[in-house]
Amino acid sequence: MSIQIQPAPATDEATVITKATLRAAARLGLTSKALATVIGVSEATVSRMRSGAYQLQRGQKPFELAVLFVRLYRSLDAILGGDDSAAAAWLKARNTTLDAEPLTLIQTLQGLVNVIQYLDARRAVV
Length: 126
Prior knowledge:
Elements: H1 10-28, H2 32-39, H3 43-51, H4 61-79, H5 84-92, H6 102-105, H7 109-123
């Protein structure tokens, strides 16, 4: 008897990424406007995401940006030991290495990638 492994349906993936994005934004204290800018959608779309009327879909740019945003949140969470208030404060404070507030930087794709790379480097310190 062989066991068949089925990939998760796209709907489940969309639900998971959408919910994770909203939870990360809430824990980091991001406004709907800031989240919309980070993931490249309108504020109305973020509102529809919150109500369950819209889900991010694989293969679309907002989905990919949301995955990066969740990665950023998970990195901050690991570095700061789950202290969401410290993570929110870090995001809004000027960072001398990044030469800007991370919240401002993550509103562009290059800035989001740079902040993630910075956090990855911080996590790798032994």
